[in-house]
Amino acid sequence: MTDDRGTDTEPTDAEAEPTDAEAEAEPAETDPTEAETQPAETEPAANRWRLVTAAVLGVLLLASAGLASWLYFYQFRPDQQTDAAVAAQTVKAADDGAVALLSYAPDTMDKDFAAAKAHLTGGFLDYYSQFTHDIVTPAVQQKAVKTSATIVQSAASEVHPTSATVLVFLNQTTTSKENPNGSFTASSVKVGLTKVGDAWLISAFDPV
Q1: Rounded to two decimals, what is the model's pTM?
Q2: Burial class of residue 100 (count of CB atoms within 10 Å of its CB; 0-12, 13-18, 19+)
Q3: Is residue 154 domain-shared with residue 69, that is, in the same domain?
């Protein structure tokens, strides 16, 4: 193109085309409607996260409730079953059994041993049966040994739904042909008990 003076006014390539730097500098046009709709697009995602969070919290609460129930039925409830009445039963069983074990006479020996066995269970019953047959019976027959025991004091040290330990303090008086005046012994015994059916039976008998 030429102006009125005949000068060429056609733009050069540099004037006609913007440089890369100018092109990059120009801000990109933004559709106003697109900008307005962006927050609306993120709102469903936020709702989804809230739903997921609520679901996770619900699962955690259910798991917590399940754990609490398990602890109650398998840990705390057995402890509640070992109340004072149960402890008293174990103490009485230990006292009665200890007296039966340590009381016998030549004239009633077989009856005494049978009564003692009724208080025992497990391996200790087998041990007592063998011990009275091999050791005690010959001594009672040959030396006329007679012994009786009385409870001084006793208390439960451990009580569980099916087992217990009772500490028993007792006095024992023993007479024989060699010592007709008798001898007096004070001793303490740790008595282990096992619940068999509705009865508490002695499963261990250890002097302390």
Answers
A1: 0.62
A2: buried
A3: no
Q: Are 140 and 106 in contact (CB under 8 A)?
A: yes
Amino acid code (one letter) for 48: R
pLDDT of residue 33: 47
Question: 25 is written with which tokens?
Answer: 């500098």
Tell whether 142 and 63 lie within a shared domain: no
CA dihedral of 153, 158, 159, 160, whole degrees rounded to 10? -160
168 domain-assigned: yes
- Average pLDDT over all residues of the chain: 77
Helix, strand, or coil here: 105? Answer: coil
Query: 22 and 52 share a domain?
Result: yes
Does residue 6 lie within any of the structural domains?
no
Residue 129 near residue 119 (C-beta atoms within 8 A): no
Q: How many residues does the chain have?
A: 208
* Whole-Å CA distances, 153 to 10, 61, 169: 126, 50, 5
Among 81, 105, 140, the domain-final residue is 81
Strands, sheet with 183-196, edge to edge from the N-terminal-most edge strand: 146-159, 163-175, 183-196, 199-207
Q: Is residue 184 part of a domain?
A: yes
Lowest mean pLDDT across 18-22, 41-45, 105-109: 18-22
Least confident of 8-17, 85-94, 124-133: 8-17
Range of the domain at 115: 84-207
How many contiguous H segments (helices) and E segments (strands) does the chain have?
A: 8, 4
